[in-house]
Protein backbone atom coordinates (compact mmCIF):
# COMPACT_ATOMS: atom_id res chain seq x y z
CA UNK A 1 0.00 0.00 0.00
CA UNK A 2 1.34 3.39 -0.94
CA UNK A 3 0.11 6.97 -1.03
CA UNK A 4 2.43 9.45 -2.68
CA UNK A 5 1.81 13.19 -2.58
CA UNK A 6 3.33 15.64 -5.01
CA UNK A 7 2.91 19.21 -6.17
CA UNK A 8 3.99 21.08 -3.08
CA UNK A 9 6.39 23.98 -3.20
CA UNK A 10 6.89 27.67 -2.60
CA UNK A 11 4.20 30.07 -3.79
CA UNK A 12 3.50 33.77 -3.25
CA UNK A 13 0.42 34.88 -1.32
CA UNK A 14 -2.57 34.88 -3.63
CA UNK A 15 -1.06 32.19 -5.79
CA UNK A 16 -2.23 28.68 -6.63
CA UNK A 17 -0.98 25.13 -6.38
CA UNK A 18 -2.36 21.72 -7.24
CA UNK A 19 -1.46 18.82 -5.00
CA UNK A 20 -1.72 15.25 -6.23
CA UNK A 21 -1.97 11.99 -4.33
CA UNK A 22 -1.34 8.78 -6.21
CA UNK A 23 -2.49 5.52 -4.62
CA UNK A 24 -1.41 1.94 -5.13
CA UNK A 25 -1.88 -1.40 -3.46
CA UNK A 26 -5.54 -1.09 -2.48
CA UNK A 27 -8.98 -0.65 -4.03
CA UNK A 28 -8.88 3.12 -4.33
CA UNK A 29 -12.53 3.69 -5.23
CA UNK A 30 -13.68 1.91 -2.07
CA UNK A 31 -11.95 4.46 0.13
CA UNK A 32 -12.98 7.88 1.27
CA UNK A 33 -10.04 10.21 0.75
CA UNK A 34 -8.94 13.28 2.62
CA UNK A 35 -6.28 15.96 2.73
CA UNK A 36 -4.87 16.93 6.10
CA UNK A 37 -2.23 19.47 6.95
CA UNK A 38 0.13 19.98 9.84
CA UNK A 39 2.35 22.77 11.06
CA UNK A 40 5.29 21.85 13.25
CA UNK A 41 4.24 21.80 16.88
CA UNK A 42 0.54 21.74 16.09
CA UNK A 43 -2.00 18.98 15.61
CA UNK A 44 -2.77 17.66 12.17
CA UNK A 45 -6.01 19.18 10.87
CA UNK A 46 -8.53 18.08 8.27
CA UNK A 47 -8.61 20.22 5.14
CA UNK A 48 -11.05 18.44 2.83
CA UNK A 49 -12.62 15.04 2.20
CA UNK A 50 -14.20 13.28 -0.75
CA UNK A 51 -16.32 10.15 -0.87
CA UNK A 52 -15.29 7.02 -2.74
CA UNK A 53 -17.34 7.81 -5.81
CA UNK A 54 -16.50 11.50 -5.67
CA UNK A 55 -20.07 12.71 -5.30
CA UNK A 56 -19.71 14.12 -1.80
CA UNK A 57 -17.12 16.60 -0.56
CA UNK A 58 -16.52 18.42 2.69
CA UNK A 59 -14.24 21.33 3.50
CA UNK A 60 -12.83 22.96 6.59
CA UNK A 61 -14.19 26.46 7.01
CA UNK A 62 -10.75 27.99 6.59
CA UNK A 63 -10.45 26.71 2.99
CA UNK A 64 -14.06 26.93 1.76
CA UNK A 65 -14.26 28.85 -1.48
CA UNK A 66 -10.50 28.63 -2.05
CA UNK A 67 -9.65 24.91 -2.23
CA UNK A 68 -11.27 22.17 -4.31
CA UNK A 69 -10.83 18.45 -3.71
CA UNK A 70 -11.34 15.97 -6.54
CA UNK A 71 -10.43 12.43 -7.51
CA UNK A 72 -10.01 10.29 -10.60
CA UNK A 73 -10.74 6.67 -9.78
CA UNK A 74 -9.52 5.59 -13.22
CA UNK A 75 -6.09 6.88 -12.28
CA UNK A 76 -6.21 6.04 -8.55
CA UNK A 77 -5.49 9.67 -7.84
CA UNK A 78 -6.80 12.51 -5.71
CA UNK A 79 -6.15 16.21 -6.08
CA UNK A 80 -6.33 19.41 -4.09
CA UNK A 81 -6.61 22.61 -6.10
CA UNK A 82 -5.54 25.48 -3.88
CA UNK A 83 -6.29 29.06 -4.89
CA UNK A 84 -5.87 32.41 -3.14
CA UNK A 85 -3.21 30.93 -0.92
CA UNK A 86 -2.36 32.66 2.32
CA UNK A 87 0.75 32.49 4.51
CA UNK A 88 -1.29 30.61 7.10
CA UNK A 89 -1.80 27.81 4.56
CA UNK A 90 1.87 26.97 4.98
CA UNK A 91 2.07 23.38 6.22
CA UNK A 92 2.90 19.83 5.29
CA UNK A 93 -0.08 18.42 3.43
CA UNK A 94 -0.93 14.74 3.83
CA UNK A 95 -3.07 12.38 1.82
CA UNK A 96 -5.27 10.01 3.84
CA UNK A 97 -7.35 7.01 2.78
CA UNK A 98 -10.01 5.38 4.95
CA UNK A 99 -12.47 2.56 4.52
CA UNK A 100 -14.90 1.44 7.20
CA UNK A 101 -15.96 -2.17 6.63
CA UNK A 102 -18.17 -4.34 8.80
CA UNK A 103 -15.10 -6.31 9.85
CA UNK A 104 -12.80 -3.41 10.55
CA UNK A 105 -11.32 -0.07 9.60
CA UNK A 106 -8.52 0.33 7.08
CA UNK A 107 -6.60 3.58 6.79
CA UNK A 108 -3.37 4.79 5.23
CA UNK A 109 -1.28 7.96 5.24
CA UNK A 110 1.05 9.44 2.69
CA UNK A 111 4.45 10.88 3.56
CA UNK A 112 3.39 14.51 3.05
CA UNK A 113 4.36 17.36 0.78
CA UNK A 114 5.49 20.78 1.96
CA UNK A 115 3.52 23.86 0.92
CA UNK A 116 5.07 27.22 1.74
CA UNK A 117 3.22 30.46 1.08
CA UNK A 118 5.54 33.41 1.39
CA UNK A 119 6.52 36.59 -0.38
Global mean pLDDT? 97
Distance between the termini: 37 Å
- The share of residues in helices is under 10%
Total of helices:
0
Question: What is the overall shape?
Answer: globular
- Cα Rg: 14 Å
* E-strand count: 11
Strand content: over 45%
The SSE string, one letter per element, is EEEEEEEEEEE
Unreliable segments (pLDDT under 50, ≥5 consecutive)?
Answer: none
Instruction: Give the structural class.
Output: mainly beta
Question: Mind describing the biggest β-sheet?
Answer: 7 strands, mixed
Write structural notes for this entry.
The chain has 119 residues and is an all-beta fold. The protein has no helices and eleven strands. The protein has strands at residues 2-6, 9-11, 17-24, 32-38, 45-50, 57-59, 67-72, 77-82, 91-101, 104-109, 113-117. The strands form two sheets. Strands 2, 4, 5, 6, 9, 10 and 11 form a seven-stranded mixed sheet that branches. Strand 7 and strand 8 (77-82) form a beta hairpin. It is globular and about 50 Å long. It starts with a strand and ends with a strand.
Amino acid sequence: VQLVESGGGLVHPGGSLRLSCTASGFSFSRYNMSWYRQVAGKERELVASISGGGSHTDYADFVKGRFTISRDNNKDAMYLHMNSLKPEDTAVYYCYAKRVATWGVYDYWGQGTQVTVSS
